[in-house]
Amino acid sequence: MNKKYYITTPIYYPSANFHIGHCYTTIIADAIARYKRLSGYDVFFLTGTDEHGQKIQKKAEESNVSPQEYVDKIVENAKDLWKSLDISYDKFIRTTDKEHVEVVQKIFKKLYDQGDIYKGEYKGKYCTPCESFWTETQLIDGKCPDCGREVNEVSEEAYFFKLSKYQDRLVDYIENHPNFIQPQSRKNEMINNFIKPGLEDLCVSRTSFNWGVPVSFDDKHVVYVWLDALSNYITALGYLTKDDTLFKKYWPADLHIVGKEIVRFHTIIWPIMLMALGLELPKQVYGHGWLVINGGKISKSLGNYKDPRDYIKEYGVDAVRYFALREVPFGNDGNFSEDLLINRTNSDLANILGNLVNRTIGMSIKYFNGIVSNKEEKEDIDNDLINYAVKLKNKVDTNMDNLEISVALDNIFELFRKCNKYIDDTMPWVLYKDPNNYDRLSTILYNLIESIRIGAVLLQPFLPSTANKIFFQINTKQVAFDTLTKFGLYENNNHLNNPEVLFQRINMK
Ligand code: MSP
To answer: Is 380 within the bounds of a domain?
Structure first.
């Protein structure tokens, strides 16, 4: 039986204004999910929308529609964005789904019945845009430490979740499971800045607005959105329902990929909820960095970005995916601009990859009418290329396991760079002048097409549509990952299709 792999993105606040930063988590998660599928894992890839809370209620009021109408309309925007980015999720969960709401109510009741949730009075600060509670000492200049905006004083009857009771168990768990929070820097930040200073019990219900999951036994309260939202990772699998087959099969999650600002929720509140429910903890929470513009936030109010679909229309979906996957070492913050996107597309996709495929197919058609034949013994110069190609899968595997995604992609592009150099060194156009060289020339072109095939097979998770275009142009059916350990599986004496430009060079704006 195949090994299972359960990967999630955060569920997104529904929005009409997604930007390239929002696409970042999901593109990365998609590449990992596809990589695991091609490696033979039985993958479940979850994404969705986080639709409750005061922020959404306010927006709906401003647009004069009910919150449900507001989210129903806008959720399509997320689905459309993921479609345009070729995101291969297995399930899209909405926190307004009836099944989700019912299970959140059951979870809340269970925690209440066992004494982990109790009733009290909340007095403190609340940041509505972040849906976060803060204590006076956590504020910076009286403002939200995460987003720098004004916080409100709230004082209301509320239910509390006994985080404090689980503090020691959580610290033990994190210390004994070094991979649980990654990268390491985020783990240190969580332990030193948030957990060790002491966890306070968390306010987990609100009464001053009603757009949320009602507490089943006290319906003037709605469940705190983060408790509601985090539960999606298990409600999506049918936890506490009649049919919990998926839950039994896929839980615990192998990887929650989240942006750095929400690592706190995923490594404190979420594991404590799971401990209280007696469930296993996810194997890893990875907190990635942000895409920024000139070092600062991508922001609607600054108007410094376009809808990601505009870039896709202009440069192609794989240019956008490639930028997100390659430009920034995973884990760090990195700059985004249209010029950087164009530069990356030109330097790697057009110059290295596009050019290689185009000129190799062009030469094969010109010299041998597009027939690719492996004729001669290999020479040293061939073996250098072949050795790199057959070892590539292992290298990429290791880097993908360590979530060094940008390095993994660079490993693949190193093969394409080596192919370009192999063309320069073997000079097929010189060999073509003498018919005595035709067997050698044919073998050189075979080696190139086979290397392109190997590179394209590995590119599938990252640039699915480009990989398919290459398979079509070189006319191969050898596209599975298990064709990667041997050089020479490209169908001998096969006929190529006509080359088509994969990436046009783009003029800088
Ligand atoms: N709804 C919560 C998550 C609940 S999960 C139980 C949320 N939603 S969000 O829409 O604000 O963010 C979704 C994802 O987009 C997060 O991983 C966030 O870090 C990511 N990004 C939003 N802006 C970003 C950048 N500028 N750069 C990279 N990722 C960023 O948080």
So the answer is: yes
Query: Domain for residue 129, yes or no?
Result: no
Average pLDDT, the chain: 95
Question: How far is 320 from 313, CA to CA, in rounded Å?
Answer: 10
Mean pLDDT, to the nearest integer, of 453-481?
98
Tell me: the pLDDT tens digits for 334-377?
999 999 999 999 999 999 999 999 999 999 999 999 999 999 88
Nearest CA to ligand 1 atom 16: 259
CA of 261 to the centre of ligand 1 (A): 8
Q: How far is residue 128's CA from residue 131's CA, in Å, rounded to a whole number?
A: 5
Return the CATH number at 400.
1.10.730.10
In total, how many domains does the chain have? 1
Q: Give me ligand 1 centre to Cα 22, in Å.
A: 6
Mutate to test the pocket of ligand 1, among 11, 18, 22, 227 (most ligand atoms within 8 A of CB): 22
Residue range 436-459: mean pLDDT, rounded: 98
- In the reported structure, the alpha carbon of residue 356 is separated from the centroid of ligand 1 by a whole-number distance in angstroms of 37
User: Domain range for residue 462?
Assistant: 338-495
Instruction: Give the tens place of pLDDT for each residue, 385-424.
Output: 999 999 999 999 999 999 999 999 999 999 999 999 999 9
| 3-class SS string, 165-218 | HHHHHHHHHHHHCCCCEECHHHHHHHHHHHHCCCCCCEECEECCCCCCCECCCC
Name the residue at shortest CA distance from atom 13 of ligand 1.
12
